[in-house]
Amino acid sequence: MVRVRSTIVSSVAVLLGAAFLGSFAGSAHPIGDSLAIFRVPIALTLALLVIWSPWPAKLRWSVSVICLAAMGHIAAQKYVSHPKGPITIYQKNLRFENDQVDLIAADIDAAQPDIVALQELTSRNAALVRMLRGDYPHQASCALVEWARVAILSRWPVEGEICIEGQGLVGVQVMSPDGPFWAFSLHGFLPWPYDQTEQLELILPIIEDLEEPVVIAGDFNMVPWSYTLREFAHRTNTTRTGPLFSTSRRYGARLPIDHVFAPGGGQAEARPVLGSTHTGVLANVFVFEP
Q: Span 129-154, mean pLDDT?
């Protein structure tokens, strides 16, 4: 009986170890980033389980320490200080069935952002953009699917516009008092086995070709410690605003999947859920060099 139990514990530990290592392999295959979403619970379970395995003590404690270090690296991001930039972005996945537009409009009015990025704009919540038109007269939207859109709103004048239909990306060239920049709203697809990788490989070259700085806000459906978002930041020459905090419930856990990226990063804070399954994100970002 003891031998059977040891075999089971060892087998499960090996599987968890493979999943844990795989969560760092997003550059090799998209499944790695899907595993990265679960890196913390995988590492915690593995660290606890391996202690009771029949493996040599040196191996058991080495694996446990590595798992704890990985969890600590993620947890530490909650406490990193981020300076507050001069340009304010309000990010919100509205949730397609949400009709609490009055509450969301009031929250945006209270925050007084310069740019508003919205996802899952539908007939249920489309009144929101009309309510905001007085303060944000420059608006653009683009179809994600037939019944839902992504939108970007600006209080400053805009000139150019980019819409990639069916790919969840819309952007405007904002003529701010400090100079022009591009502001994008993005709704990322779900990760592997869905089409997130293909989506980003389609839209990233478009963003990379722009001459002006870019700010991208959205529901990325991906955690910031993934290869996907690290590569996204690298290729767009941006930094994710922080600190780290959860924005949505996915896969039975609270996860940070809504982000704002800007050239100089910036400070972000959570705003209320207000009928959605996502918190809002209010980010004060650095777009231009001081």
A: 96
Q: How many CB atoms lie within 10 A of CB 92?
A: 31
Strand residue runs (E) in the chain: 87-93, 115-121, 138-145, 148-154, 158-164, 169-176, 179-187, 214-219, 239-240, 248-250, 253-255, 258-262, 266-271, 280-285
CA atoms within 13 A on the CB side of 283: 33
DSSP 278: B
Which positions ≥6 away from 18 have C-beta within 8 Å?
Answer: none
| pTM value > 0.90 | yes
What sections of 23-100 are H helices per DSSP? 31-36, 39-51, 57-76
Using one digit for the tens of pLDDT, what is the confidence trace for 161-189? 999 999 999 999 999 999 999 999 999 99
Quick one: pLDDT at residue 218? 97
What's the half-sphere exposure (Cβ side, CA atoms, 13 Å) at 285?
30
First-to-last alpha carbon distance for the chain, in angstroms, is: 68
Q: Quick one: 87-285 is in which CATH superfamily?
A: Endonuclease/exonuclease/phosphatase (3.60.10.10)
Strand bridging mode 138-145 / 115-121: unpaired
Q: What are the extents of the domains in the chain?
A: 2-76, 87-285
pLDDT band at 42 (very low <50, low <70, confident <90, very high): very high
Whether omega for the bond prior to residue 224 falls within 30 degrees of 0, making it cis, is no
